[in-house]
Amino acid sequence: MLIAVVGLNHRTAPVEVREKLSFSGETLEGALLQLKSYPVIQGCAILSTCNRTEIYAATMEMDEGLNAIWDFLSRSSGADISQIKNFTYCHTLYDTIRHIFRVAAGLDSMLLGETQILGQVRTAYQQAVEYGTTNRVLNMLFQQAITIGKRVRTETGIDQNAVSTGYAAVELARTHLCSLDSRTVLLVGAGKISELTAKHLVANGVTSVIVSNRSFERAESLATQLDGKAVKFNEMYRYMEEADIVISCTAAAHCVVRAAEMCRVMERRNGRRIVMIDIAVPRDIETEVGNIEGITLYDIDDLKNIVGQNLEQRKKAAVIAEGIIEEELDEFMRWLGMQFVVPTITALKQWGEKIKQKELKRALNRLGDLSEHDRKVVGSLANSIVNQVLHLPVSKLKSYALTTEGHLYTEILQNLFDLEVAGQKPKKKTASHPKENLF
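The structure corresponding to this sequence follows.
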């Protein structure tokens, strides 16, 4: 059984291409069933997120299997295969296994060590199982990838340190408020950075989002995305009385949050603490605000320092994670190698048995009337010869199965003995086997 992955991600394709090759919950079932309908595809799964789409497939014929995936992507997107190849990557066999292990561990993500991808891999697998498109090899591959993803995070702590401004803001807010559950955040400004930061906060338990912006229409648009509330810019101080966290990131050339106003806000908060995060350059919040009792103020430099330190820690954890993956990769290759050679060994033994029976029948007919004892001796001799002839190639194939070249030796053996292997198409009886080189 051969496995392959064809995919695209944030490094190989812009968002306008990724969205054309994405599969949402509504279209995923039909896409999986369509891909599985190709006769050469024995099993398949689709991992589709905002940053990647990857098609995993198990097949007995690699070239034909890849052709089926390219055809499927072309039909799904309406683009020519040549266009799709400009934005996609392809891994087969050993490289496929390493790739999904690295994906599940967060080593292939835009944000090194991110946690979300592990859940996305798990969901992709569960959906493929639900729709009946996996097989034994893909089941084992995804189960092992999920296990490795958990192991990497447990043993390295790679996901424990913030490596983006948004994540750093979440860490800082959590530190000072103990928990983000049921907290309220006020956004001053409705730009991309404050939007992303707010989304991180919401994902970590914040339940109420208030957006204040000079353009009220923009505030309404962002509030709708976050299932929050938009307020006019001149009303922001009143709503700061309710907020636990304030994130400010406007394009103003001067401070928009003044210390004098924040003193009055804190008087009305009756001692409740507030975390204020100023991501703007130039800064939105007067530095004196940080001196007010009950206010913890961070600016962009505070966040960048944390991001830089934590990224270095994640890079060190990633080195350890790569070692874990290589260790697990060797184990999985041993298992997969045995799955691949067993049908070939069975076919080889059947080939030997067929020849033995044919020649034994011919010999017994020529020998004439033999006693039962003599017939058993001749039959035992035939068995012994066939077993000894096949012993070495079978033993060697089993040992090669534990290497990355195991599938190559298996194919060579199949061709040498012209074997018909269960689940595989009969080999063409020609002098050569030209195959289209897709890459």
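The chain is about 55% helix and 15% strand.
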